[in-house]
Amino acid sequence: MIELINRAEKFCSKVESRLSDVAPLPSQDRVELRAKLGFCRNQIAHLRNLDEVKIENVLVREGLRHLIIGMMWVAFYARTAIDYKLYRMLLTVESTFTYLLMEQVPKYRRNGQGSHPHK
Question: Could you say which of 12, 20, 36, 44 has the lowest number of CB atoms within 10 Å?
């Protein structure tokens, strides 16, 4: 989980550094992008301050979900600064989180108490 948080921070840092190399964004897009980057930074700080940074922790799952949505908005607003490698970083964070959820969700009581259709 810490690795996902670190990759999210790296994504945000790279987006910020690349924004100086592209044409200026329209005013409203720049405002929205800065807001989403700030949101992502706050989510990263929130996740790092939690006692247990594990997929079993509901606050971690919720925080990561919000972080990933924020990263997707960052990618949308900063699309002129995003290349394949940087976009792939976003996809890796999202897909790893989804994989971890798929491995854990069946273990929760309200989801079949550990029964998994593929096992």
Answer: 20
Average pLDDT over residues 93-118: 71
Q: Spelled out in words, what is the top-level CATH class assigned to the domain 2-111? A: mainly alpha
Q: What is the pTM of this model?
A: 0.84
Confidence of residue 110 (pLDDT cuts 50, 70, 90): low
Give how far Cα 41 sits from Cα of 23, 45, 100, Å: 24, 6, 22
CA distances from 56 to 16, 74, 93 (A): 32, 27, 17
- Quick one: how far is CA 95 from the chain centroid? 10
The domain locations on the chain are 2-111
